[in-house]
């Protein structure tokens, strides 16, 4: 099955879900988010030292990756019930789980989705 379909989905997932979640939390930490929920979170975080906040910020990509890992693993486990269909424009893949040896594994390695599509790669 299609590497293009996997990459199309992976690019969306990494840039629009993973990276945007990290940006969202960075904005909360920096005070750029003004909503009531953000203010309550900042109040809670105000009890932390600057070192603790830097550590928390450095963990954001790891937390996002864990969530994505289990989401993708779950899709693989219930592929008969929930199918991810991808249309690349030139091809349509009816079940993305069938196009991969394991969707969660597509996240990792030097050639994985995170390394290729994220602005927040390990070591950055």
Plain-language structure description:
- The protein has a two-stranded antiparallel sheet.
- The chain has 124 residues and is mainly alpha-helical.
- The protein has one domain.
- The protein is built from four helices and two strands.
Offer a concise description of the structure.
The protein has helices spanning 3-30, 36-45, 50-77, 113-117; strands at residues 86-87, 92-93. By secondary structure, it is mostly helical.
Topology:
Blueprint: H1 3-30, H2 36-45, H3 50-77, E1 86-87, E2 92-93, H4 113-117
Helix pairs in contact: 1-3
List keywords for this structure.
124 residues; mainly alpha; two-stranded antiparallel sheet; 4 helices; 3% strand
The major pleated sheet works out as: 2 strands, antiparallel
The coarse silhouette is elongated
Cα separation of the termini: 33 Å
Order of helices and strands: HHHEEH
Number of helices, where a helix is a run of at least 4 consecutive DSSP H or I residues: 4
Q: What percentage of residues falls in helices of 4 or more residues? A: 55-70%
| Count of domain modules | 1
Biggest sheet, strands in spatial order?
1-2
**Class derived from helix and strand content:** mainly alpha
The strand count comes to 2
Query: Low-confidence segments, ≥5 residues, pLDDT <50?
Result: none
Mean pLDDT, to the nearest integer, reads 92
Radius of gyration: 17 Å
- Beta fraction: under 5%
